[in-house]
Write a structure and sequence with these properties.
Blueprint: E1 3-5, E2 8-12, H1 18-27, H2 29-32, H3 54-66, E3 71-77, E4 80-91, E5 97-104, H4 113-129, E6 133-138, H5 143-152, E7 155-166, E8 169-179, H6 187-201
Parallel strand pairs: 5-6
Antiparallel strand pairs: 1-2, 2-3, 3-4, 4-5, 6-8, 7-8
Length: 211
């Protein structure tokens, strides 16, 4: 399965992506480090966790996808691997929700890659998978990532104190969300209309550059 909009493609992550994924990730170490999940120190009664290898990560993502709990994608831009997007924590029953996490190559930031990728994923979740609600949780300090959800019209719902272990400590996160009823026309269509309006108005009023 692939989700496509122009130069931007979301497709399942593969073991053979290892070389390209490592190259992009290594080149973006300083860009990504402040926002990446880390493993907290072990507790007296908890297991000792280690950062997975690429192969372990892909196998885990595939296992979760097969169980219906996750949708793991890589992002391609103009035919090259440019980032990663994962719909995780998928819950069914009376909730029908999931949350999205993402990162993008700094070299393509500001070109609309990330908002387009998120819009593609949200439309797929609402229209094909059957989810009702999507969340994105972002550190308040992460301006580029916040601009992604603001451009797409996600609602800010509040603060989750010390929500995730990021860059070596427990960090606060802002919660942004959308439900299917809020985008009956599709999030990608809304994003395209928003970009077109900004372009007609001129460069002075365009969205600030972000992911």
């Amino acid at each position: 399965m692939e989700l496509v909009d122009g130069d931007i493609v979301l497709r399942p992550i593969r073991l053979r992506d290892q070389r390209a994924w490592r190259e992009v990730n290594r080149r973006n170490r300083d860009w990504l480090r402040p926002w990446e999940a880390t493993i907290p120190p072990p507790t007296p009664h908890g297991p000792v966790a280690h950062r997975p290898t690429f192969r372990q990560m892909v196998r885990h993502l595939r296992s979760e996808a097969n169980a219906g709990r996750m949708l793991p994608f890589v992002i391609e831009y103009q035919g090259r691997l440019a980032g990663q997007l994962t719909v995780a924590g998928i819950t069914w029953g009376s909730m029908c929700s999931g949350h999205i996490g993402y990162w993008v190559d700094e070299a393509v930031a500001g070109r609309g890659v990330m908002p387009t990728a998120v819009a593609l994923a949200v439309d797929h979740c609402f229209r094909t998978v059957g989810l009702h609600r999507i969340e994105v949780c972002i550190r308040p300090e992460n301006g580029p990532s916040r601009r992604v959800v603001e451009k797409l019209g996600f609602r800010e719902e509040g603060l989750r104190p010390r929500y995730l272990h990021i860059d070596g400590a427990w960090r606060d996160h802002l919660v942004f969300a959308l439900t299917a009823e809020e985008v009956p026309e599709g999030l990608l269509n809304r994003w395209h209309r928003s970009r077109a309006r900004d372009e007609r108005r001129g460069p002075g009023v365009r969205h600030p550059p972000g992911n």
